[in-house]
């Protein structure tokens, strides 16, 4: 594979784990494959089944007939094919962010998976699927939180809370990994410094249907440090590279890294540049940069999110130094105007606590950053969807408070929001599973709106 790619080999290192078999065109002619034969002689034609981390242009060094792009659990699979004449030219960018729920070439044993006509890329298709994302946040971004965020935005990329490999390998896997299809796309963040454990856990994540595996190299909490992972891993870039390689060898979905820009008093840009370079050599193509140092001693996790100064320019410089990589930025970003400004310099923006405390901030993400044509949902429509979700979850035995606690900021900034939050926090009604608290909560919103109308 590497010999075919020449100067583009570095980019495709990140996709080798997706190579599962050779295929050939049923009619032997360039164009859309009429059928697929797994492990058949292909005369040098190879199909890469992968989820591309970033749409980039690359230079072909030899004749190729390829590319299987798995779009979604329900979408068809299309294969691009190029002639010898394309060798040495800049080939088109290919659709990034393809979903790999079907994932394996050996599942495509007949032409029923193939579309009847070639897929035509639009400008919208070339943007990163992680153009806007919500950060993994301990005790917050569980499946109920993600379900609320998905009601607000169809396209925002979502992350789980960090899950340790020990919890998966020796605990209740379903409790940690179960999620509803409506949450997708969703990435699983893992915490560990053991390559073998990470590989096994990443495989579990893939089997449970996650779209990405993310390695936590940014958490500064003492509890995480005692387990020798999180931000302290930035001091050992080769170990991180080994972890990434182990996971990439085990799964076909993207393996990404979330990290800080420095540790303790190390503030030199060269530190994070070399970290990214070393890990990228192991095949990681997506880096999420929390643009602050991690202070491992003397600051709490909360203080680490507020006291170390933000240095967005470090993330911008990483994009300049590694244009082939997908670089997302995180830290202190609160408005979509800020998101738009950052996207002039990097590929993606990750929102953190603002998205949790003010989930409606995501309402215009789909239209503004993904080109979606669907109308922006109102808060009332989102609440109605959440009510339906809560009703279904109650039937499964879920505590109502596990759901409502994530929605307290839905009406943030709206008159009457305080009364609405108070009703959704009523422990006695929550214990009863009383969905009537939504109706009572809305009376506060209606009364406040009526009062504003009279006063105006």
Automatic annotation (TrEMBL):
Site residues (Interacts with tRNA), renumbered to this chain: 216, 302, 305, 418, 421
Pfam families according to UniProt: Dus
Annotated organism of origin: Candidatus Burkholderia pumila
InterPro entries reported for this sequence: Aldolase_TIM, DUS-like_FMN-bd, DusA, tRNA_hU_synthase_CS
Homology family: Belongs to the Dus family. DusA subfamily.
Record's protein name: tRNA-dihydrouridine(20/20a) synthase
Record-listed E.C. numbers: 1.3.1.91
Keyword RNA-binding: yes
Record function comment: Catalyzes the synthesis of 5,6-dihydrouridine (D), a modified base found in the D-loop of most tRNAs, via the reduction of the C5-C6 double bond in target uridines. Specifically modifies U20 and U20a in tRNAs.
Reactions accelerated catalytically: 5,6-dihydrouridine(20a) in tRNA + NADP(+) = uridine(20a) in tRNA + NADPH + H(+); 5,6-dihydrouridine(20) in tRNA + NADP(+) = uridine(20) in tRNA + NADPH + H(+); 5,6-dihydrouridine(20a) in tRNA + NAD(+) = uridine(20a) in tRNA + NADH + H(+); 5,6-dihydrouridine(20) in tRNA + NAD(+) = uridine(20) in tRNA + NADH + H(+)
Lineage of producing organism: Bacteria, Pseudomonadati, Pseudomonadota, Betaproteobacteria, Burkholderiales
Active-site residues, Swiss-Prot/TrEMBL: 219
Residues involved in FMN binding: 136-138, 189, 258, 290, 330-332, 352-353
EC class of the enzyme, as a word: oxidoreductase
All residue ranges annotated as the DUS-like FMN-binding domain in the record: 134-431
Annotated keywords: Flavoprotein, FMN, NADP, Oxidoreductase, RNA-binding, tRNA processing, tRNA-binding
Membrane spanning residue stretches: none
4Fe-4S as UniProt keyword: no
């Amino acid at each position: 594979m590497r010999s075919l790619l020449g100067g583009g080999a570095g980019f495709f290192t990140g996709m080798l784990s997706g190579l599962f078999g050779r295929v050939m065109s049923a009619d032997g002619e360039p164009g859309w494959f009429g059928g697929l034969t797994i492990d058949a002689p292909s005369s040098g034609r190879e199909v890469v089944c992968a989820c591309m981390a970033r749409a980039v242009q690359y230079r072909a060094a030899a004749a190729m007939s390829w590319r299987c792009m798995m779009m979604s659990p329900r979408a068809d699979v299309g294969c691009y094919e190029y002639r010898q004449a394309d060798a040495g030219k800049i080939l088109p960018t290919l659709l990034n962010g393809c979903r790999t729920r079907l994932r394996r070439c050996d599942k495509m044993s007949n032409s029923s998976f193939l579309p009847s006509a070639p897929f035509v890329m639009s400008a919208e298709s070339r943007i990163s699927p992680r153009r806007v994302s919500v950060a993994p946040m301990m005790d917050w971004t569980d499946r109920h939180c993600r379900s609320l965020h998905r009601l607000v935005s169809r396209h925002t990329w979502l992350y789980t809370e960090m899950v340790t490999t020990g919890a998966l390998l020796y605990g209740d896997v379903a409790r940690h990994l179960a999620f509803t299809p409506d949450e997708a796309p969703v990435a699983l963040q893992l915490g560990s410094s053991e390559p073998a454990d990470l590989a096994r856990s990443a495989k579990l994540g893939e089997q449970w249907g996650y779209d990405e595996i993310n390695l936590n190299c940014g958490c500064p909490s003492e509890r995480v440090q005692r387990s020798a992972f999180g931000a302290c891993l930035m001091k050992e870039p080769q170990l991180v590279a080994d972890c990434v390689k182990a996971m990439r060898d085990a799964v076909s979905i993207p393996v990404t890294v979330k990290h800080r820009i420095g540790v303790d008093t190390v503030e030199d840009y060269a530190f994070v540049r070399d970290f990214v370079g070393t890990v990228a050599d192991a095949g990681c193509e997506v880096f999420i940069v929390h643009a602050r140092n991690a202070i491992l001693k003397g600051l709490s996790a909360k203080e680490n999110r507020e006291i170390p100064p933000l240095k967005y320019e470090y993330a911008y410089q990483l994009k300049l130094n590694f244009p082939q990589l997908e670089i997302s930025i995180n830290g202190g970003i609160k408005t979509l105007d800020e998101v738009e400004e950052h996207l002039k310099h990097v590929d993606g923006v990750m929102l953190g606590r603002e998205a949790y405390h003010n989930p409606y901030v995501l309402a215009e993400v789909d239209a503004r950053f993904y080109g979606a044509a669907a109308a922006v949902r109102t808060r009332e429509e989102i609440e109605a969807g959440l009510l339906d979700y809560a009703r279904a979850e109650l039937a499964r035995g879920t505590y109502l408070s596990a759901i409502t606690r994530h929605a307290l900021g839905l009406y943030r900034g709206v008159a009457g929001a305080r009364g609405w939050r108070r009703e959704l926090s009523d422990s006695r009604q929550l214990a009863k599973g009383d969905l009537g608290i939504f109706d009572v909560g809305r009376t506060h919103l209606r009364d406040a709106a009526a009062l504003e109308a009279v006063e105006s």
